[in-house]
Design goal:
single chain; alpha+beta; 6-stranded antiparallel beta sheet; 4-stranded antiparallel beta sheet; about 35% strand; elongated
Length: about 220
């Protein structure tokens, strides 16, 4: 501000001062936006992990309940009622017969053939895998043609099962391969999910099979 001859003049901002002010303001806005975006993404990831964990827990509980009620028919006519296989990547495929509970307005309960298998996910990123559940009310129908499928969990990174035969845990089971077909005493399920193996979350459970109750006493240490 300059005084002279009773007049007062005000000096404006120079171009450099304006540019410096804009630069500082831009940095401040970018910093605030970065903090907000980072916080939002962290919250979204936490919510996603929580939802996936609850979903995985529900899937494991459902599988355990269905396996606990699995059985063989006395007149099986060379039909396989409990089949567990593993591929080269140690991913399991499980097929069995169980007595399922009714779900109001969705399905009636009853004897059902069930298959759990890992397949390409219908949704999500390319290459994502999903745990699929197939069910068939006709015990002698064709699972590949007549069953109803459901996507249970995606993306999935680990799905392995083991059966307890009374002495050890084994990774395969085929009740049609024996002259006197037997159900496993118990089944152990390991389920993993996440973006990849490096960031996967794991959950495990095991369940006895009640139709083998007479032999299950050995598994639970009651003999």
């Amino acid at each position: 501000m300059v005084c002279g001859g009773g007049r007062m003049t005000r000096r404006g901002f120079t171009l450099i001062e304006v540019l410096v002010a804009l630069f500082i303001m831009t940095l401040f806005i970018a910093l605030v936006e970065g903090v907000y975006t980072g916080t939002t993404r962290s919250r979204e990831r936490a919510v996603k992990r929580t939802v996936e964990a609850h979903t995985a827990s529900a899937v494991l509980q459902r599988m355990a309940d269905e396996l606990a009620m699995s059985f063989q028919l006395p007149d099986r006519i060379d039909q396989t009622y409990f089949l567990l296989t593993n591929d080269s990547e140690n991913t399991s495929t499980l097929e069995f017969t169980s007595r399922t509970a009714a779900i109001p307005s969705i399905r009636t309960g009853g004897d059902t053939r069930i298959r759990y298998i890992v397949e390409r996910a219908a949704r999500g990123n390319d290459g994502d895998l999903a745990l699929m559940r197939y069910e068939l009310a006709d015990l002698f129908g064709r699972m590949d043609l007549d069953s109803t499928s459901y996507e249970m969990l995606s993306p999935i990174t680990t799905f392995t099962l083991e059966c307890f035969n009374g002495e050890e845990w084994v990774s395969t089971w085929d009740d049609s391969a024996s002259d006197e077909p037997l159900m496993p005493l118990a089944v152990k399920i390991t389920l993993g999910w996440g973006e990849d193996k490096e960031h996967e979350e794991l959950m495990e459970t095991s369940t006895p099979i009640y139709s083998a109750a007479g032999r299950n006493a050995r598994y639970w240490g009651n003999e």
